[in-house]
Amino acid sequence: MYIVQSVVQVPLEKAEEVIGLYQNRSRSVDNQPGFLSFQLLQNEPKPEELIVHMTWETKEHYLAWVTSDDFKRIHELEKKYPDQELASIVPTVRKYVVRAE
Fold it and tell me: One Pfam family this chain carries (predicted)?
């Protein structure tokens, strides 16, 4: 398995707005080959930190997703989000290979 986490720091007063965006996400990734799961995590002691946690069967499946037209379309829409403060946030991306379960 392959896990990708995108960590974003949002203004605390906008955390619920961002959570709402992810709760209403397009879900197009859900139909991608090799996609296993999506979770949005909120750091309990630091609620302004949100983590998009995605699990894939393989790294190759993930790479196919990030080079897809669907991925590009979704991320272009994010750049056009009306709240430019939120639209300009750049996540820190962490990638992991699962070695034991």
Answer: ABM
Reference 5, options 56, 45, 47; nearest CA is 56
Average pLDDT, the chain: 92
Two tokens at 62? 């993930």
**What is this structure's pTM?**
0.89
Q: Which two tokens stand for residue 100?
A: 């034991």
Strand order in the sheet with 92-97: 35-42, 49-56, 2-9, 92-97
Half-sphere exposure of 91 (CA within 13 A, CB side): 16
DSSP string, 56-91: ES-HHHHHHHHTSHHHHHHHHHHHT-S-HHHHT--P
For the chain, the structural domain boundaries read: 2-97
Fold of 2-97: Alpha-Beta Plaits (3.30.70)
